[in-house]
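Structure ticket #2291
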Amino acid sequence: MKSFCLCEKVETQTAMRLGGIESKLIKSDEEAKATINELLEDPSIGLIMISENIHNRLKEMIMSLKLLRKDTLIIQVPEPEGLQDKDYIMKYIKNSIGIKL
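Resolution: structure written out below.
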């Protein structure tokens, strides 16, 4: 299984490439949606990493894909500045399993 990253910053793309992960710089939401759909059609892609800014703008689409797709894992990754939403992990756990930690 291969991994792929969608990001907005060259620094993120460079870091992913140094780690051996293919990546693409995204310039619009339409481009992001099209790329996500292309990646989901590729059976060799097992992990799609999406930068926090893109993830926040396409949250509804991405969350529905996470629920529907069992063969491809979609995760959010921070840009070089770090996570903007510091409570993201806790909110995600609470929404996923309904338990407040």
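Closing remark: Strands lie at 2-7, 22-25, 45-51, 73-77.
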